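Backbone-to-sequence.
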């Protein structure tokens, strides 16, 4: 059993705010829970100070650093969940690829995969506990240090998003190198996606064993796929991950909510709501009410305020939040942005967002 394989006794502090977990399961709450993707990030002065002069992935490999960066936003704002500080690209690293974070450029692979033969360069049987044990240690340490204030979310990149980075070698507008594989090397593409899926499943289970109380899978590059390719190269793997993780957790007597965030894949919300995930995360290109109608109460929803709306004055942020809450309703809903907080954001406006969600939702729930 993959959960037990990574499990050891930990004796964590008792959880005092389970609003996020209850909303993920569609249960009643007193307010709508809220957190932000990239809540630990460069928009915080304390984050920039802590990260100054340190290599990004070395920071990811230090459990103490990850713990500190995860806790920073919780000291400022009333977030209802924390997400472990790490990165989705630790998986390509575990598969043997070199990945560097280049200032001003973002993640960079000096030797990306070019042709199917390059798959042979990847580690065939990854020892997840050994290669990614530092993430598990970070999760265990952070779960202790959060002192039960809020639940801790673990995460992974989804197979297609990781595949596209491994072939593109970094960010891209067209993802044409990675999409070339889909058209030209469908078999090799499926082989790579399968390899990634196997590692992701064990990685997510290891995170739960280490103390993660919810899991989010980031398919950040879904938008570059049309519905046909999404159905062939993304959705089956997203489903497989949730099904296998859930089955293993059930066997171990654990129930951990899973969130899928497929950015710009609004054509797929119906399918995503029937993919064994408890929560579907949404970007801002979909209207809250229609997302609710199309998912028909089968899942909880998370999202989806435009991150740029945080540039608005605080009163305006409050109005936008109110409309969003009215669109989604207060049950089975987790407020979030439609993508990560931008590095130039004023932290005060992030605080205004959190407060507006709590304030408006409390009033709305009282009236029901
Ligand atoms: O607060 C959190 O959300 C938790 C930490 C987190 C990071 N990356 C930290 C980080 C999470 C969940 C991620 C996931 C991640 N990483 C994704 C999926 C989410 C998404 O944005 O769609 C992706 C695509 C990546 C890859 C990646 N890592 C990119 C594109 C960048 C930005 C590069 C840049 O220069 O802007 C990173 C770097 C990164 N990961 C930062 C942080 C806080 C900023 C760089 C730094 O701290 O020096």
């Amino acid at each position: 059993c993959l959960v037990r394989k990574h499990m050891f006794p930990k004796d964590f502090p008792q959880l005092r705010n389970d609003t996020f977990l209850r909303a993920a399961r569609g249960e009643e709450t007193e307010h709508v829970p809220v957190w932000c993707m990239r809540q630990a990030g460069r928009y915080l002065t304390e984050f920039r100070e802590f990260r100054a002069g340190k290599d990004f992935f070395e920071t990811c490999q230090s459990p103490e650093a990850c713990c500190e960066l995860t806790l920073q936003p919780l000291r400022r704002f009333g977030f209802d969940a924390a997400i472990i500080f790490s990165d989705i690209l630790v998986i390509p690293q575990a598969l043997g690829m070199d990945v560097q974070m280049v200032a001003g450029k973002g993640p960079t692979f000096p030797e990306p995969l070019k042709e199917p033969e390059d798959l042979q360069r990847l580690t065939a049987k990854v020892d997840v506990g050994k290669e990614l044990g530092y993430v598990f240690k970070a999760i265990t340490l952070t779960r202790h240090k959060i002192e039960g204030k809020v639940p801790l979310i673990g995460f992974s990149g989804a197979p297609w998003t990781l595949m596209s980075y491994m072939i593109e070698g970094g960010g891209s507008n067209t993802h044409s190198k990675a999409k070339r594989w889909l058209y030209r090397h469908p078999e090799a593409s499926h082989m790579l996606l399968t390899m990634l899926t196997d590692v992701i499943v064990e990685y997510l289970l290891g995170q739960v064993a280490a103390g993660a109380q919810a899991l989010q899978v980031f398919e950040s590059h879904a938008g570059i796929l049309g519905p046909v390719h999404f159905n062939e190269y993304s959705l089956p793997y997203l489903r497989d991950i949730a099904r296998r993780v859930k089955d293993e957790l059930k066997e171990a007597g654990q129930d951990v909510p899973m969130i899928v965030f497929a950015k710009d894949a609004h054509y797929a919300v119906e399918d995503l709501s029937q993919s064994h995930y408890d929560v579907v995360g949404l970007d801002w290109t979909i209207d809250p009410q229609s997302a609710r109608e199309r998912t028909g109460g089968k899942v909880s929803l998370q999202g989806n305020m435009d991150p740029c709306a945080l540039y608005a004055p605080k009163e305006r942020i409050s109005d936008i939040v109110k409309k969003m809450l009215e669109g989604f309703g207060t049950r089975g809903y987790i407020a979030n942005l439609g993508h990560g907080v931008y590095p130039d954001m004023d932290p005060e406006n992030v605080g205004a967002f959190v407060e507006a969600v709590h304030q408006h939702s409390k009033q709305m729930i009282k009236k029901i």
